[in-house]
Description:
Largest sheet: none
Distance between the termini: 142 Å
Mean pLDDT: 80
Amino acid sequence: MKKIQSFFWFCAGANTEILKDCPTDHAKYFGIGGTILFTAIMAGLAGGYACFTAFDDPSVAVGFGIFWGLMIFNLDRYIVSSTGKGDGTTKITWDEWKNAFPRLAMALLLGFVIATPLELRLFQKEIDMEIETLKQQKRADARSEIEVNYGQIAELEVRVVELNQEVQAYDLIRKQRYAEMIQEAEGNSASGRPGAGKIYEEKKQQYALAEQEYEDFKLKQEKKIEEVEANIERLKQSRDEEVANIDNIAAQYDGLMAKLEAFSKLTDTYPTLKIAKWLITAMFIFIEIAPILFKMMTERGPYDDRVERIKHVTHVSEMERISTANEEVNTNLKLAVERNRQRLEAEIRANDALMKQIADAQADIAGAAIDEWRKNEMAKARAAQNTPAEA
């Protein structure tokens, strides 16, 4: 039980080491952790069922169900652990609602996501029956559309009937001519003379002409009928292929989208089913947001005091470290500035001495140059004075 209790505390996002020393808060975090754990299990089942419906692969469904359950567990654990303790009273104030709104919105969305696949599983039989109805309706609609698209078949079939009727008209004329010829031969005609007389020969020629016209017309019409019937057969084959394709598509219409559409139609048709759906959804939403509400309604306990004290001590300690670090940085900066100042002054003094030496050297060089120039000029002057006297 201790291991189970510690695990449920972990699920609640609590610090187990601190919570061990706070017996009055054990039950609270045990309940919160259990709610989070069982919500994650239901989410895993729902996600696995949705994946199985979409991919029809048990291994993929199991893997996705585990992944989905762990992800929901991590989200719920973070949402609850980051909610805090509220104002420490049993009342939920407006400020608490405002602070918890983002987390409640996330929990609300997760509640819808978890509830929908489980609702599909609970009403699977009714949904399967509705899917069959949808399949038949889609087949009928698709076939009606195909029949409209292939309305030319009926026109061609009427054309075949017309062509046959035209042949039958020529055949009727031929038969009438034959009957008149026989009547004349038997003496049952208007002439009343049996045998092969002049009128009989005329009737015989008329029958032969009608027979030839009938055969010629029949041959010509049969070619037309063959062409029309070939077009009819081609169109029917194309129509049957499209119908078969539609039937295959309709037969495969049993995935997640089909279940959602069928469930939506069922809830629109049957108000009691809609009420049941929303009750189930509300239940899952409540389960999802319950830990957050419980934390906001729960009074402040020893665990909260210790956690706050540790946070405060840690905060103060870190602030002291930051202050000490800032002082060290400032001291090092001052030392660096002082060293740079001293180095700069030393360089300036060295430069002053060097400049003085350079100035003295330049003065000596200038004095020597001036003395040399003076000697040269005096020499030139003496030379100029001595030159006329010698001349």
